Amino acid sequence: MAELEKVRAKFKELDVNGDGVLSYEEIEDLLSKLNAGLSENDLQQLFCEIDHNHNGVVEIDEFLDYLASGKTAGPGDAPQGSPSATAVREEWKQAVLDGHNELRALHGAAPLGWSDECYLEAKMQADKCQAAGKMMHGHSPGFNHGQNIFWCSRPGSSAQRAAQSWYSEIDRPGYNFSNLDYQKGTGHFTALIWKNTTHVGMATSEDGCYIVANYFPAGNIIGRFAQNVAPPLDPSRPRPTRGSAPARR
């Protein structure tokens, strides 16, 4: 009973705005401390698993379940309808390209172009993530596409925010440029700046909480990191900060 009260007290301490639930921002530091070495995308996946009813916040019962038994998420509602590349807004395409190409330029990688094929595969996978209630990879035809996935607790996250979350793996957990190879927890970062990749298509799930980017040709190929992953051109330049302006598609 004493342990239960301690957990409830911790929940109340984390609930900074006093609304009786925990947002991702309120619980992120605790998850990071309890799971040292996880990237932001790993922490997002963990939050998805704790948020059992998929309402974008962690309630007290979910918090207790997580600390007591590691209870994971169940499936969500399956989206309806079929995706169409013709419905993609031009401002979304531009936001995706700007969000990627500004970061790629820091490493001397050429800008990406938009791909409708990548978009359609990314859209189907984003909706599949929504239906499953978790971040999961798929829809990579012939394994020719690379793929990054981003999750947010509330709809409306921006293309820039997703790209910068993937890029942040350069610092957390950190990429060692003296060992140009695949390194655990940094695959989203290396996929984003991979020099040989030429095109991207990025889409959100119907509920707006999952963002998936497909890349062509795929990066993160063992034996080719030295040719495709370059350190920052200016190591003294401050890292980009997280984007927040909504530009959802």
From TrEMBL:
Q: Does the keyword Lipid metabolism apply?
A: no
Region of interest (Disordered), residue spans = 228-249
What's one GO MF term for it?
calcium ion binding
Q: Which Gene3D superfamilies match?
A: CAP (3.40.33.10), EF-hand (1.10.238.10)
Its transmembrane ranges are: none
Which residue numbers delimit the EF-hand domain?
Answer: 2-37, 38-73
Question: Which keywords does the record carry?
Answer: Calcium
Task: Cite the Pfam families for this sequence.
Answer: CAP, EF-hand_7
Q: Which GO terms describe its cellular component?
A: extracellular region
| SUPFAM superfamilies from the UniProt entry | EF-hand, PR-1-like
According to UniProt, the name of this protein is EF-hand domain-containing protein
Q: Which organism is it from?
A: Pyrodinium bahamense
